[in-house]
């Protein structure tokens, strides 16, 4: 495989194009006529060069989307079978992309401008931080983080590299007819004072005991595990099913929770710095295997909670029920009315009677899109690279929301109430629960922590500021 960079003239032209566009945007963000087709048909030297890391189902889907806007030079996965398949996919590698097993070889390449990360969850932050440090724009799948500490680590990295665009794959934020409409309606007070939100995220599968076996020859199991504890290979731990093990993910709390809790906290304007729940009650949560002090006592079966109703209390006496026992979606209950929204529908009397008539305009959508026009998820990513400014699915509000997801996980694992100080970002009054703030990585796989840079208010409070500006 070739690792030769593109000729310096081409690379410099493209780099200069991206750099100049971002610099101009810093002075005054332009909003010119733009479309996927127009951007995709730029001179080849101006099209971003892309490296894709993680080539499973989501990784392939993301890669195909990226090719509308740039050219994929490299594909990478610790499963070389997946990498070869992506290379030869006529919509991804087209038989030309270089293949790598080690993501660091992708980051080493000076000719790659954009990195797309669609690995298992516990690898997201490590790769993303190193990609930013290497000067790459980053698209990373959700959930972005595995722990509360990782939220701080990636936020600090994004503050340091605010000249680079970072987008999280929470694509529900692009759904104008359902999720954006619901967020707008809540933020404008059309449902009255919100009293309760039910976030239905479904249950996890149960299974096991599974039998250890030798890992496939094409899979680097040690590298797949990375910072996670060393264990024997089980095919049920790997690839898609990693979600049902707390060692690598948070079960449904971070799988669907990263989508629906995101919409709920966005609507509440509770995803800014210093915001979040203050009490999280995990007493009504069951697990498919025995637990002791928050840890599964067996390592051969799925261990994430499969039956739960975790209650989070926010300021203003708002209760958010994160549950496996409700329809998948979000039910908002206010003093004036109720509304349910999911990927399939938006319903309730406020919708049937169009309570938001003349109050859900293009300008309202532009506000939710942080000043940019409404468009698809990848469109918004590449526009943000070109014009500057925050994308609709930014890392700063995402990690605030992920605090709630991780706190639900911790409370459920311990089976009790825990208290959270959202300003200090600490679990209080419970040393055992506070110990879940971070994981101890396998030596050699530590996550790099960049030197902390002070947040700019516009980065940290974008969504809540937008609401206040509208109210005023």
Describe the 3D structure.
The chain is 34% helix and 16% strand. With 472 residues, the protein is of the alpha/beta class. Strands 7, 8, 9, 12, 13, 14, 15, 16, 17 and 18 form a ten-stranded mixed β-sheet that branches. Strands 3-2-1-4-5-6 form a six-stranded parallel β-sheet, with helices on both faces. α10 packs across α14 (395-414). It is globular and about 60 Å long. It starts with 7 loop residues before the first helix and ends with a helix. Residues 1-41, 457-462 and 464-472 have low confidence and may be disordered.
Reconstruct the topology from this structure:
Elements: H1 8-27, H2 36-40, E1 49-53, H3 57-66, E2 71-76, H4 80-87, E3 98-100, H5 103-107, E4 114-117, H6 124-133, E5 137-140, H7 148-160, E6 166-168, H8 176-187, E7 194-200, H9 221-225, H10 257-268, E8 279-281, E9 285-286, E10 291-292, E11 295-296, E12 307-314, E13 318-323, E14 329-334, E15 338-341, E16 346-347, H11 349-352, H12 362-368, H13 377-387, H14 395-414, E17 417-421, E18 426-428, H15 431-434, H16 457-460, H17 462-471
Parallel strand pairs: 1-2, 1-4, 2-3, 4-5, 5-6, 7-13
Antiparallel strand pairs: 7-14, 8-12, 8-17, 9-12, 10-11, 12-13, 14-15, 15-16, 17-18
